[in-house]
Amino acid sequence: MKPYVFITRKLPDELVKPLMDVAEVEMWNKEEEPVPAQLLREKANRATALLTMLSDTIDESLLDASPHLKVIANLAVGFDNIDVPVATKRNIVICNTPDVLSDTTADLTFGLLMATARRLIESANYVKEGKWQGWSPYLLAGHDIHHKTIGIVGMGKIGQALAKRATGFEMEILYHNRSRNEVAEQQLNATYCSFDDLLTKSDYVVCLTPLTNETKHLFNKQAFQKMKSSAIFVNASRGAVVDEEALVEALQTGDIAAAGLDVFTKEPIDVDHPLLSLSNVVALPHIGSASIETRTVMMKLCVENIIRLLQNQDPKTIVNKELLSQNC
Ligand SMILES: NC(=O)C1=CN([C@@H]2O[C@H](COP(=O)(O)OP(=O)(O)OC[C@H]3O[C@@H](n4cnc5c(N)ncnc54)[C@H](O)[C@@H]3O)[C@@H](O)[C@H]2O)C=CC1
Ligand SMILES: O=C(O)C(=O)CO
């Protein structure tokens, strides 16, 4: 009997085809809506493998109810939606999609920084809404990007790709990370800083850390108060690294100048959330890695990882590496 694999979103058939050759595959039939939690639970109960989205919660109770599960391939590099320690205890391999999305996410993050600094969305709407009466010296004037200081919190793969883009704008690059990044220092001339130093010195503060117990609400009232009043905050990691109430207050009181946000604590964010009413906020619907090319490669990587695991080979990318020698 073929192993049963459940995919929690409608993906293109041609990308899933290789999996169908080795497994019985079922997919949730909607592209834009997550699978209901109860249905996921029922499917997971029979599944040997799951291909999940970052919007699916894979917690202890779901893992408890999934006795045959061998692998979960998450269509994301981030895996904060999965209880990895519990999965590891149950010998369930967790795969993610690192590297393949770093350049695409860095492009979006730098684009978001530019859109926020130069007020691109506000300006485009201004024209389309017929508000443009004529040229004037400070009409929709924003802030320079070139030769300014960017502070990157989380100098990992995406952070490094972002720093590379910042060098093209001749920016001074500061970074804060769990450990020193020699490539960033030697090849990109980035300078390591304490978190507080980075906050006080940067014109642009960009968050690219994973969401962990340590980074939850890292950007709180105190952090925003340490930033320059002209600083622009950009978050392309996970919403919960930010205390959103504190961010609203910082933007309203002028502790910081503006924010570019690709991610939110609750996704989708409620349309009446105070952040969305502020003209100095650019909000995007979590599209960091959303290019057709990159999403296709991410899907292929998930499919390949599941096939490899089902054939008792090492996956190409794994989160809980400690399981490699045991399982694969
Ligand atoms: N907006 C979007 O669509 C996307 C968001 N992401 C988010 O970006 C995150 C980073 O992705 P990668 O760069 O590939 O991961 P990575 O693992 O290569 O880099 C993360 C870096 O953050 C550092 N870090 C962890 N905890 C820290 C802390 N407390 N203080 C300072 N630094 C800390 C790590 O040392 C590491 O260098 C993902 O975990 C994900 O949450 C990733 C892709 C797309
Ligand atoms: O990969 C991730 O972690 C994302 O947020 C989407 O690509």
What descriptors fit this protein?
binds 3-hydroxypyruvic acid, Rossmann fold, D-isomer_2_OHA_DH_cat_dom, NAD(P)-bd_dom_sf, 2 domains, seven-stranded parallel beta sheet, 328 residues, alpha/beta, binds 1,4-dihydronicotinamide adenine dinucleotide, glyoxylate reductase (NADH) activity, D-isomer_DH_NAD-bd
If you had to describe this structure to a student in words, what would you say it looks like?
This protein folds into two domains: 4-100 and 292-327, NAD(P)-binding Rossmann-like Domain (Rossmann fold, 3-Layer(aba) Sandwich), CATH 3.40.50.720; 102-283, NAD(P)-binding Rossmann-like Domain (Rossmann fold), CATH 3.40.50.720. The relative contact order is 0.14. With 328 residues, it is α/β, with parallel strands linked by helices. It has helices at 13-20, 37-46, 60-64, 84-89, 102-117, 120-128, 157-168, 182-188, 195-201, 221-226, 244-253, 292-310, 324-327; strands at 4-7, 24-27, 49-52, 71-74, 93-95, 149-153, 172-176, 191-192, 204-207, 232-235, 258-261, 281-283. The two termini are 21 Å apart. The protein has 13 helices and twelve strands. Strand 7, helix 8 and strand 8 form a beta-alpha-beta unit. Strands 8-7-6-9-10-11-12 form a seven-stranded parallel beta sheet, with helices on both faces. Strands 2-1-3-4-5 form a five-stranded parallel beta sheet, sandwiched between helices. It is 36% helix and 14% strand. Helix 1 (13-20) packs parallel to helix 12 (292-310) and helix 5 packs across helix 7 (157-168). The mean pLDDT is 97. The protein binds 1,4-dihydronicotinamide adenine dinucleotide and 3-hydroxypyruvic acid. 3-hydroxypyruvic acid (3PY) is lined by residues 54, 76-78, 101, 288-289.
